[in-house]
Amino acid sequence: MLPAWFPSLNLEDYKRFTASHPMTCLAGAGVGLLGYLIWRYLKADADMTVLAADAFYSNNKMRSYFRGKVVWITGASSGLGRALTVYLCQFGPKLVLSARREGELDNVKQECLQINTELSEDDILVLPMDSLNFDKLPELVSTVISKFEKIDILVNNAGRSQRSLAETTPIEVDRAVMELNLLGYVALTKAVLPTMIEQKSGCIVALSSVAGKMGSPIGTAYSASKYAVMGFFNALRAEVYQHGIDVCTLCPGPTRSDISLHSFTETVEKEYNQDVKNEGNKLETERFARLAGVSIAARIPEAWISIQPYLLYLYLAQYFPTIVTSKVFLKGSQGRIQKFRNNECLY
Q1: Which residues, at least 6 apart from 90, have a Cβ–Cβ distance to it below 8 Å?
Q2: Where are the beta strands (DSSP E) in the chain?
Q3: Which residue, 42, 253, 269, 275, has most beta carbons within 10 Å?
């Protein structure tokens, strides 16, 4: 119930009340702030550092940062790589688009040219690449340097997920997942590093995953590869700091991409081929692209980009690891395993 004096409250009344009841006002402000923070957290789709960057980096600031920068994105033909490419193109960077499917890369290029008519054909280089053809990577780097003279940002994104149980998955699949998701990143990064060291500037971005912070059943090899990505690039960050190079790891949760279509299964040759892009609880790829873009612009070392409840799980895994390995969580994960056996959407 409101106090009797509330209907006639004016500025002088307010001043007298606050002067005579400072602790009440302070407590009320504290409760209000706490309520706002709880509401904001429940609605969050990224960690607080990323959300702060999202609020700070207007489109003008993004344009000021990315205009003229050479951004090389692997896995740009589909999924998160394509979404990030299409988002960044509006800010006027020079783009290098790599993946195995040249036709799809050409489609992405044309989409970017339609979105930003200030870009020309020469501003976007389509550079087909097999991430596992390590010997050819130095040649591809030379091609980019010949075209644009520098490499400002490398986004390691090419990779595949996994949908299979460890007990039925042969070691050949584990090896294939690790080679593509980890060594593909490592090999290209090492090929680009000499250029960035010579420039004394640059930013290396590596797409990890929520699964790279806490294990994900039905994807043991995938989780291992993403944990390894975190380990390699966290260590690299300290090594390249002296050269003016930043390293950013992005950890997305479930998104509305076609990741399930091309996931590894119990055999290397067979893809999972499950189209669940529009099913389940997932982050929109456009929103991922925005949050990834501002994370890169703000040079955030580690960015968590995920909706709830997966964001909460990340905080628990980071600060209370015993909880996420408890029997309560292990029992809860059995539902995901059963969904896999029933060929249902896992999210």
Answers
A1: 59, 63, 115, 116
A2: 70-74, 94-98, 124-126, 153-156, 202-207, 245-252, 302-305
A3: 253
Tokens of 225: 């590869």
Structure-token pair, residue 71: 């951004």
Q: Would you say how long the chain is, in residues?
A: 347
The residues carrying an active-site annotation are 222
Q: In angstroms, rounded to a whole number, what is the distance separating the alpha carbons of residues 343 and 24? A: 56
Contact yes or no for 239/231 (Cβ under 8 A): no
Write the CB contacts of 280 (distance below 8 Å, at least 6 apart in sequence).
254, 345, 346, 347
Pairing of strands 94-98, 202-207: unpaired
Using the structure block, give the residue that is written with the tokens 């395993």.
337
Q: What φ, ψ does residue 217 adopt, rounded to 5°?
A: -60, 155
Token pair recorded at residue 335:
């539902």
CB 248 within 8 A of CB 296: yes
* Structural domains of the chain, ranges and CATH numbers in brackets: 47-321 (3.40.50.720)
Question: Is the pLDDT score of 91 beyond 90?
Answer: yes
The predicted-structure confidence for 202-213, as pLDDT tens digits, reads as follows: 999 999 999 999
User: Cβ atoms within 10 A of the Cβ of 80, count?
Assistant: 24
d(CA 258, CA 158): 13
CA Rg, the chain, in Å? 23
pLDDT tens string 169-183: 999 999 999 999 999
- Which residues face 205 on adjacent strands? 155, 248
- At 67 the pLDDT is 97
pLDDT band at 31 (very low <50, low <70, confident <90, very high): low
Dist CA 332 CA 309 (whole Å): 13
The phi, psi pair for 59, rounded to 5°, reads -60, -35
